[in-house]
Structure formats: structure tokens, C-alpha cells
Request: fold
Amino acid sequence: MAGATLEETGMAPHQPRSASDPRPGNQPFYISPGCHTCGTALVLSDRLDHPDAAESKIWHDEWECPVCRDGIYLDWPEGALLSLQRNGR
Reply:
């Protein structure tokens, strides 16, 4: 199905394996794509702060609301931070 969306094909999107792995559709993969406060679409923190940064310098797990600028939203799988905390890292 040329030009079909992932939803139309029934295929799952590529699951990011690391913080440097780009997210499908340039949107957060594990978290809601909208700001919890105002609903504005989140943008990559590095793109917000350094719009001319090279792709190799972008962390694809750090997102921010360009309106609220109320902190960084980490696009991590559920339980990943808790697992790191339990292991003393």
C-alpha cells in the first residue's frame, strides 16, 4: 500500500531504542504530544533552544511546551525512570 499511513497498514510504528533515536512523525512516542497545562504541541527541547543544531546533536527524548516553558517532558517508556531509581543510577 504505497503512501498508506501506519494506521491504515496495521503496522506498529518504529519504537525508539534510545534518547538519540528520532521519534516517528517527529512527535513524542511514549508520552502525550500535548502540554499537560495548556495543550500546545510539545517540541524537541534542543530544537526550541538551538534551532540550528545538527541532527546528530539532538536528544529526541526531551520535549518542552513552547508556550508554558514549564520544564522538560521526558519521552521514556512507562517505568523506565523508576527502574533507574531502583538500580541507584
